[in-house]
Amino acid sequence: MKDIFIAFAKQNQDSDKAVLSLLDALDNAEREKNRKSYYKSLSGLARHIMGGTLFFLDLMGKAVPKNAGAQKAIADAAKIPCFGEKKLDEDGWKSFVTSIKKADKNLTAFVEALLDADFSAPVAVPFYKGKPKTVPLFFMLQNLAAHNIHHRGQISQILDSLGIPNDYSALSPSFLHA
Questions:
Q1: 48: burial class by Cβ within 10 Å (0-12, 13-18, 19+)?
Q2: Which of 65, 74, 147, 166 is deepest in the core (most CB within 10 A)?
Q3: What are phi and psi of 35, to 5 degrees?
Q4: 2-177 domain in CATH 3.40.50.720?
Q5: 7-61 pLDDT, tens digit each
Q6: Are 42 and 26 in contact (CB under 8 A)?
Q7: For residues 165 and 160, what is the distance between their CA atoms, to the nearest angstrom?
Q8: pLDDT at residue 150 above 70?
Q9: Extended strands (E) in the chain
């Protein structure tokens, strides 16, 4: 199971890197323009992806308090700034890019530090209206992967509408050899 979730984390890191490269090529006004998505702009979608990663890392980290390696892996994540919903200027975008790369590294290191038993650890969740109150850590990891893929898909659709070539229709195996 661990190998699967390490692959998910590395694929997340690789995909975010590719998306950020495409978004970096846009001028700031294009990144921040309201595209009528729930998170409005391309930047807003990217910031939501990072916010989700940090939120899930916090919840999952609380489920494995005795795993020193996992705790060390996410210690820096608590220091990563959340960028919220406010529009970013160019310097804010650069800071965000640095932050999401750190968050992705923290996620990968966290998963790599997990022990087999950790994947079943109960994670307290503040959603689902309390039913259930907890879910297994592996379920949260799967949901984080799905969450980020979903929102990168939204970014991809917007890039398609702008005529910007991108390929998120399949998972790239490039991260497997990194």
A1: buried
A2: 74
A3: -105, 10
A4: no
A5: 999 999 999 999 999 999 999 999 999 999 999 999 999 999 999 999 999 999 9
A6: yes
A7: 7
A8: yes
A9: 122-124, 134-136
Q: Check: CB of residue 110 under 8 Å from CB of residue 73.
A: yes
Q: Identify which of 173, 171, 142, 101 has the alpha carbon closest to the alpha carbon of residue 1.
A: 142
For residue 89, give Cα distances in angstroms to 93, 156, 174: 6, 22, 32
How distant, in Å, are the alpha carbons of 1, 9, 27, 109, 141 from that of 4? 5, 9, 36, 14, 10
Residue 79's pLDDT is what? 93
Helix, strand, coil content of the chain in percent (nearest 5): 70, 5, 25
Q: What are the residue boundaries of the structural domains of the chain, listed by start? A: 2-177
Which residue bears the tokens 């509408």?
Answer: 161
- The rounded distance, in Å, linking the Cα atoms of 153 and 167 is 10
Q: Report the alpha-carbon distance of residue 4 to residue 87 in Å, rounded.
A: 36
DSSP 35-85: -SBTTBSHHHHHHHHHHHHHHHHHHHHHH-TT-HHHHHHHHGGGGSPP--S
Q: What is the DSSP letter of 176?
A: G
The whole-angstrom separation of Cα 24 and Cα 79 is 24
DSSP H or E stretch at residue 111: helix 90-113
